[in-house]
Amino acid sequence: MGPNGLYATFVTLFGNPFIYAVEPLAPPNLTQPELALPWAQDETWYYTGGPHGAWASGSAWSAVDFAPPGEQMGCYIAEAYTRAAAPGVIARSENGAVLLDLDGDGFEGTGWVVFYLHLANRVEEGARVVTGDPLGQASCEGGVSYATHVHIARKYNGEWIPAQCHNCRPGVNPPPFAMGGGRSAAFWVRNTTAS
Q: Is 165 helix (H, G, I), strand (E, B) or coil?
């Protein structure tokens, strides 16, 4: 707490922490890049939940879930592949998670990132992908899951972006989570025949 406390020790070891700050994290009038639906065009997946927590307790309500085609229930590795919603580079691929970095620098703390969870047989970290490339197969791998699905969320400058905001004001609130022409999770529910 004093002049030789934690802050002074941190500065001595690592330098000024505030020179790396990105302000604002989400600028006014932030727009989401165009995202495709994360499955093959000839497939129909099912919207099964969201918005809900992106990661662990206390995270933003940034995620939506989709189940692959088929009637099998419970946990299994789907035959259908979850696909890249946009071009980019795989910033991380581990423990059921794939993070697709859309600005291509391979760092998930800058720009837009699409987070996929519960994927088996994942694409390798560092791979460059284009829209529609396979990323992995929906499963229960990574995180808590009781049935096969893919959990998808967005980040901007390392911060979770809510999937749907309430009382939104253009230019002030985060953009809605839109994939394949959808505007929000509620829109996907009304348009479940989109494939």
A: coil
